[in-house]
């Protein structure tokens, strides 16, 4: 008896819940005046669609049908009245072809202060080629805009998005929580300046999976304050690899912790797995990183920790010159380079099952700070070859352990 009653009550609840869940406000940018012709500025219609979706108290959807939409700066701001906004993009959003129009803005498309936004599909074309040419020509050019950024937001999904030819970074995740990126295709030319694929900083619980990144700078760069980051199934190259850093830009800097990078293929990249810190005072740190199941194909620096980073000798006090060492001086090695003292503490970093080929003889380089050595570096089943010969390692101030076969050996 009781069972039947419960069942009836549940059925009523369930049936009455269905229409509620299904009520979904839909905004179609074309119905709001956007022109998929690639030349009419459609920014206003996109902002209008956002205002509707964000202002709806029920879950809402923005539809972007196929075609090309010219968008100037798009700022999509919250807080919104609902936490379930879907943006379905079949078409391509294109930035103005004159790079000066957005070149001095930090971002082209920027989402701020939002919770619960999912983007499915779509292509973003940053039209950055002209700006890269300007930068490569050493002319006076604007810095360029990041194509897509999320700031101060949480519960974000980006699934199946393509990003082409960003002026600067393609995607930036800044001060966010719980961001899930899947099936992204990021493309820019191998010599395009500063076109990082995905940059994450000051964010917790970011996942990047099943994506291909071809670009001119880091495929993925991981800045200060990144926690619980998961990266899996990525093809990187051309590009500068996956990089934690640069760190120690500032004295007061939150650390990077609990990062997993697994099942990645690097093809012809400048670096593979890199941790990079300026040789400056800082209370930043990197701890708890696992690099696992990685294939290197002709990578210049497959494994590299560089705590000695100080291009143009900018603002790196407390350096000690190699020339200070009389032994080196006597063999004429003074003044060759400076060793900087980085304040960043690097600990508990595991490299496990890293295979493939190095494009240079030094396949493993751990260049840690003399005042602040790396600790708990764990190398396990690492096998890297150079030109069909054994590669070599070059390590200083690094402490840790070796498990299984590690070639090149002799590091820790
Ligand atoms: C580390 O991050 C992963 C997600 O990348 C998370 O599932 C796990 O709980 C985190 N571990 C700790 C100790 O916070
Ligand atoms: C240089 O090192 C000294 C001694 O370790 C320290 O007191 C000083 O603050 C450092 N300078 C800077 C600019 O960090």
UniProtKB/TrEMBL annotation:
Keyword Cytoplasm included in the entry's annotation: no
SMART domains (UniProt xref):
PbH1 (SM00710)
Q: Which residues form the active site?
A: 240
Instruction: Check the UniProt entry and state the signal peptide residues, or none.
Output: 1-23
Where is the protein localized?
Answer: Secreted, Cell wall
Query: Keywords in UniProt for this one?
Result: Cell wall, Cell wall biogenesis/degradation, Glycosidase, Hydrolase, Secreted, Signal
Q: TM segments?
A: none
- Per its UniProt entry, which superkingdom is the organism in? Eukaryota
**UniProt-recorded name of the protein:** Polygalacturonase
Organism, scientific name: Coptis chinensis
């Amino acid at each position: 008896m009781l069972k039947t009653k419960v069942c009836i009550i549940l059925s009523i609840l369930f049936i009455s819940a269905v229409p509620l869940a299904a009520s979904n406000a839909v905004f179609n940018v074309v119905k709001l005046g956007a022109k998929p012709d690639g030349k009419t500025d459609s920014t206003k219609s996109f902002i209008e669609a956002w205002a509707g979706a964000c202002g709806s108290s029920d879950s809402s959807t923005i539809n972007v049908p196929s075609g090309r939409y010219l968008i100037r700066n798009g700022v999509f701001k919250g807080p919104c009245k609902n936490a379930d906004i879907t943006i379905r993009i079949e078409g391509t959003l294109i930035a103005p072809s004159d790079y000066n129009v957005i070149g001095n803005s930090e971002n082209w498309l920027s989402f701020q202060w939002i919770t619960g936004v999912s983007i499915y599909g779509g292509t973003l074309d940053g039209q950055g080629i002209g700006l890269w040419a300007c930068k490569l020509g050493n002319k006076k050019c604007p810095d360029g805009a990041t194509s897509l950024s999320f700031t101060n937001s949480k519960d974000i999904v980006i699934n199946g998005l393509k990003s082409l030819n960003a002026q600067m970074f393609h995607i930036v995740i800044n001060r966010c929580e719980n961001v899930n990126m899947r099936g992204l295709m990021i493309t820019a030319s191998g010599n395009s300046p500063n076109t990082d694929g995905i940059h994450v900083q000051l964010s917790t619980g970011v996942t990047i999976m099943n994506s291909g990144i071809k670009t001119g700078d880091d495929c993925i760069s991981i800045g200060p304050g990144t926690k619980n980051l998961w990266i899996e199934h990525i093809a990187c190259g051309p590009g500068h690899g996956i990089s934690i850093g640069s760190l120690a830009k500032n004295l007061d800097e939150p650390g990077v912790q609990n990062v997993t990078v697994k099942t990645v293929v690097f093809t012809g990249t400048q670096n593979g797995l890199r941790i990079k810190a300026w040789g400056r005072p800082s209370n930043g740190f990197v701890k708890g990183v696992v690099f696992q199941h990685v294939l290197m194909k002709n990578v210049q620096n497959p494994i590299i920790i560089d705590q000695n980073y100080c291009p143009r000798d900018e603002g790196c006090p407390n350096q000690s010159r190699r020339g200070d060492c009389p032994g080196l001086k006597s063999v004429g090695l003074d003044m060759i380079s400076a060793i900087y003292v980085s304040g960043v503490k690097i600990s508990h970093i595991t490299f496990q099952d890293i295979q493939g080929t190095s494009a240079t003889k030094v396949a493993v380089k751990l260049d840690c700070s003399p005042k602040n050595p790396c600790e708990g570096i764990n190398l396990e089943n690492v096998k890297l070859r150079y030109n069909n010969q054994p590669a070599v390692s070059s390590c200083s101030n690094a402490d840790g352990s070796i498990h299984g076969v590690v070639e090149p050996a002799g590091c820790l």
